[in-house]
């Protein structure tokens, strides 16, 4: 593949230069962004291919085909739109294979008529994300406040999508996000309401809730982005990688899933390496650098195996080490955030391995549906090495439970975050959002319509392949899943509390595990310190001295008694172990220090208390033992 494409090398180089110049101009002006630029997502920005950077100037209005549904109420099966892409517009790049061999589109979301009618529970967060505008709605004025933060504006009007771009984001995130929206309209044609939304394609949330408290702020700017956190009001939307991450050769989600499922079959759980695996770029966040300290070394084995992914080498070698499907070889896989949330999450989760989730600060649209100990194992951010070591120890001593957590996490990702549900999430989010709009959406000056053809036809290389692979060929045969009801304040509190409790539970186990280690250390500390021979002699000295003080008689040497001294005892013993031990324990010269001082005697209740304390600790441990066996008996009976 690489060789076949080599003729485009010059083209790519040109682009490389252009793009890195562009990046460096930005970086010098913004220190904060400089770090952002260093993110994993960015490492490859220098490899951005020519394909889509300039697609805006290549709109081909003649490719618009077929009548479109124009109202939002029609539910009749809509007319199937025929596209030139990828078949007939492949003049420029015909050498890349656009569709799968048999001509069918394997990546079309599967229609499954037995799909449960209610959406997965993480859809309920849509209401929470839109809550800040529930009273005020989104007026034109409120919307335009988001303009300065946005990379682009999406307008959906009469079933068509238009875009107006403001700034260029990292790599081609915007392209694949827009592609996803165009495909959504293909999947549910004529069913999306008119709307205008503003999208910020950078990593970190920007709408701080603290800035929008009180009466003087009628409504925060509604900014759509890929992730948010508890201190922000950004609205989360599925990220571009569901349609592919061309710069890193990460295929569209539906296709990645198939590959990872194959990879899963290659190594059965029993045969997987019983350590925690991570592979990634540590330079994007301090917490990742911190993680690397947990790698196995001569001094310490934290039960981890960590590797740095060097994307530049990966690129040169055709991504052979970063293939996701080849990374399902360990029983435990670590998920850790990068500059913000990390796209790697879903691929890690899909491996059937137990995910060790280093406490995240950001959330994307899917993570909020996951529960500790059901879908993943929570890891402390502070003290992560100890936490990881314990997690792996727990997993290796509770193999069935660990395996179940791994499988349940994967099932969640495969089934509840399937492409169908990704489209459903987008659909419902946009629908609920549109209900809040207090103005009639308009197409602003300079906006362009985007379609499958207008985006796909000019695309080249992997960009084009991924578009072809993630293209929706025909509308869904089923309606979107039904939105669940919003959380009541009490339900929401309970959900959060339950998660916090489960995380706390794991932390308690961890503390107990390390307590066991401390007891061991304290025990040997006691012996090593207080059972030195010096103290044994001191003890003998003091007890004999105290005993001697009690003598109410004259001490006499009885008949037949013999004086003993080292010579008389040792000299007759000729060699052997006995002689050896005598030699080894012979005192050669008197102590030059006095004996230690005896502490004062126990007071009456002091001794009683000491013994009672010992007893009660013993009772407590006995209780734990009984509880443990009752549990075991119960689970045996079931
Ligand atoms: C593209 O390739 C297909 C099959 O490989 C071929 O049938 C078609 O004619 C080619 N199109 C052009 C414009 O070269
Ligand atoms: C459809 O969904 C059901 C339940 O969700 C599942 O058991 C079944 O395997 C799915 N069928 C197909 C063809 O995907
Ligand atoms: C972690 O340790 C393994 C095993 O010694 C080694 O192969 C790997 O390169 C180390 N990773 C890093 C990032 O140093
Ligand atoms: C969480 O733990 C607290 C204290 O142990 C308990 O009172 C509460 O009911 C738990 N909440 C949930 C939702 O499990
Ligand atoms: C171990 O020893 C230290 C210091 O003597 C003490 O503070 C700690 O409580 C002991 N740990 C346990 C588990 O008894
Ligand atoms: C568990 O079951 C065994 C045999 O069935 C019984 O002897 C034992 O007392 C039980 N232990 C507890 C703690 O219930």
UniProtKB/TrEMBL annotation:
Coiled coil region boundaries: 607-634
Transmembrane intervals: 35-56
Limits of the Glycosyl transferase CAP10 domain: 191-440
Region of interest called Disordered, as start-end residue ranges on this chain: 1-30, 93-116
Biased composition regions of type Polar residues, renumbered to the chain: 8-30
Keyword terms: Coiled coil, Membrane, Transmembrane, Transmembrane helix
Pfam families according to UniProt: Glyco_transf_90
Name of the molecule in the record: Glycosyl transferase CAP10 domain-containing protein
């Amino acid at each position: 593949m690489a060789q076949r494409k080599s003729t485009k090398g010059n083209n790519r180089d040109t682009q490389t230069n252009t793009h890195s110049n562009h990046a460096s101009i930005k970086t010098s002006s913004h220190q904060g962004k400089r770090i952002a630029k260093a993110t994993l997502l960015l490492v490859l920005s220098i490899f951005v291919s020519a394909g889509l950077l300039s697609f805006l100037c290549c709109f081909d209005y003649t490719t618009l085909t077929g009548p479109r549904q124009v109202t939002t109420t029609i539910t009749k099966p809509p007319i199937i739109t025929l596209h030139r892409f990828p078949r007939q517009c492949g003049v420029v790049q015909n050498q890349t294979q656009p569709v799968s061999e048999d001509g069918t589109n394997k990546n079309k979301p599967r229609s499954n008529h037995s799909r449960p009618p209610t959406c997965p529970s993480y859809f309920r967060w849509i209401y929470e994300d839109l809550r800040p505008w529930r009273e005020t709605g989104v007026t034109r004025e409120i919307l335009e406040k988001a303009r300065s933060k946005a990379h682009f504006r999406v307008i959906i009007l009469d079933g068509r999508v238009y875009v107006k771009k403001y700034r260029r984001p990292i790599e081609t995130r915007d392209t694949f996000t827009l592609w996803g929206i165009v495909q959504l309209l293909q999947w549910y044609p004529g069913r999306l309401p008119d709307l205008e939304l503003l999208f910020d394609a950078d990593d970190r949330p920007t709408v701080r809730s603290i800035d929008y408290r009180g009466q003087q702020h009628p409504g925060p700017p509604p900014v759509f982005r890929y992730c948010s956190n508890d201190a922000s009001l950004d609205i989360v939307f599925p990220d571009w990688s569901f349609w592919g991450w061309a710069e890193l050769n990460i295929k569209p989600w539906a296709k990645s899933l198939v590959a990872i499922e194959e990879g899963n079959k290659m190594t059965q759980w029993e045969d997987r390496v019983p350590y925690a695996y991570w592979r990634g770029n540590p330079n994007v966040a301090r917490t990742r650098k911190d993680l690397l300290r947990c790698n196995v070394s001569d001094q310490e084995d934290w039960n981890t195996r960590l590797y740095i992914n060097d994307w530049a080498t990966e690129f040169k070698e055709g991504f052979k080490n970063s293939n996701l499907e080849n990374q399902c070889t360990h029983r435990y896989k670590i998920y850790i955030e990068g500059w913000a949330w990390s796209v790697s999450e879903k691929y890690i989760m899909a491996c059937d391995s137990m995910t060790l989730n280093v406490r995240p600060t950001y959330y994307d649209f899917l993570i909020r549906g996951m529960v500790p100990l059901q879908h993943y194992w929570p890891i402390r951010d502070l003290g992560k090495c100890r936490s990881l070591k314990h997690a792996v120890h727990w997993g290796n001593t509770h193999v069935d439970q660990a395996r179940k957590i791994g499988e349940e996490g994967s099932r969640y990702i495969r089934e509840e975050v399937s492409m169908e549900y990704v489209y459903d999430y987008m659909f419902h989010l946009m629908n609920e959002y549109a209900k809040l709009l207090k103005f009639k959406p308009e197409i602003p000056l300079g906006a362009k319509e985007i379609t499958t053809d207008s985006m796909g036809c000019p695309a080249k290389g992997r960009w084009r392949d991924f578009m072809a692979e993630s293209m929706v060929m025909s509308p869904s045969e089923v309606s979107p899943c039904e939105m669940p009801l919003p959380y009541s304040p009490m339900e929401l509190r309970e959900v959060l509390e339950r998660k916090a409790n489960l995380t706390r539970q794991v932390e308690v186990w961890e503390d107990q595990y390390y307590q066991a280690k401390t007891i061991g250390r304290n025990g040997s500390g006691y012996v090593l310190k207080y059972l030195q021979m010096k103290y044994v002699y001191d003890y003998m000295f003091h007890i004999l001295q105290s005993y001697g003080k009690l003598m109410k008689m004259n001490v006499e040497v009885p008949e037949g008694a013999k004086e003993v001294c080292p010579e008389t005892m040792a000299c007759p013993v000729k060699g052997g172990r006995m002689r050896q031990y005598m030699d080894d324990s012979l005192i050669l010269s008197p102590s030059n220090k006095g004996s230690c001082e005896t502490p004062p005697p126990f007071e009456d209740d002091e001794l009683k208390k000491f013994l009672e304390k010992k007893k009660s600790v013993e009772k407590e441990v006995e209780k734990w033992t009984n509880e443990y066996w009752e549990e075991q008996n119960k689970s045996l009976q079931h």
